[in-house]
Design goal:
Number of strands: 0
Structural class: mainly alpha
Largest sheet: none
Strand content: under 5%
Shape: globular
Radius of gyration: 30 Å
Low-confidence stretches: 1-17, 28-62, 129-155, 397-403
Number of helices: 14
Distance between the termini: 80 Å
Order of helices and strands: HHHHHHHHHHHHHH
Mean pLDDT: 76
Length: 403
Amino acid sequence: MSRSRFAVTQHTTFERASAAHGQARTRAQVDTLGDAHASAHACEFTNACGSTRGATPGERGTTPWRAADTRRLAALGAILFTTVVWGLSFISTKTVLTAGLTPVQVAFARFLVASAIFMLLHATRRGRGWSDRRGCRDRNHGCNVGRDAERSEPVSRSRSLPWFASGTTMRVLAGGILGVPVYFLLENGGLRLTSASTASLITGTLPVVNALAVAAFSRERVTVPQWAGIGISCAGIYAIAQADLASSVSARAMLGNAMVFLSVCAWVAYTAINRPLLRHYDNLTLNTYQTVTGTLFLVPFALHDGVPLGTWGSEIWLNIVYLGVVCSALAYVLHLFALEHLGSTVVTSCLNLVPVFGVLGGALLLAEPVSWAKALGGILAITGAFLVTTGDAAARQPATARQ
């Protein structure tokens, strides 16, 4: 074999060996990448399922604590705090009414404080660019929680109201009047005549009254569980009324109960008026406009009754600050936070416990008597409201999700 041919043969052999080595190296790289890709998928799967990721043998079997878990825990604490706060608002209002304030004075002082805080929040949001972009318009509870809170994608809404747009101005004004002066003058007036525990139980039937209004005035279907909840809640209200009659409650107290029930009807109308607005405007903006509007409508009544701010003692002012700052402002913000991280179903279910804290507060702080018959009626009313709320949530789920 000549040197040239040997060189060619050697070169060819070298090329073949190099090619084989390259193919083996390529296969090894592919296998390595495949293993890495599979490991990445395994990490993603175990992380999604709550297993360990990169954990030592001693750490396997534990669930990593994620930031989402912290936010959900904080949201649960927020809605429970809000539930207690709103339940005790009946006791706080009853306290200042007993101290001598009129229903108008209580409502005006409360929302004068709340209006200042909402305007500050609104101005801060506009300046810093944060907003509550999730809607809040549930037909099952007093606050306007909504279907957008259940969606995974946020829904952007306008931060300012076109006052000259067709129908917008009248809806904002009507909502402000119904949501502040009408509702709270009726509720405060009723609380002056009846007990805080009874008033809180009657207010707890709001989802039931709302479902009846939906059945009567809209095309939305009321489900079988909701009808069952309506019947149970009505039985509970009847038991409460019978308990009051058996306890020789005066006609004055029964008038107070009727006024509280009318306040519930006013809030149902307020929710219906706001529902179209909340498809276009975010909740904080709308709430700020309507709170300020409602407070302005209270001014003539407050001037008639007089607002002797300087003569009010520390107990009155503590309760006014509690009602305006904690109940109307702080609890509102916490409620929105809970809606964003828990959804409307969980939030409204928790809010059905507001009457429980109202009754407990009335018994412990105001020494109001609670008979077994009234307690049973309250349990029935709250159970019915819960069925109405959860029945609506189940009806809104897609069919595939329920199967």
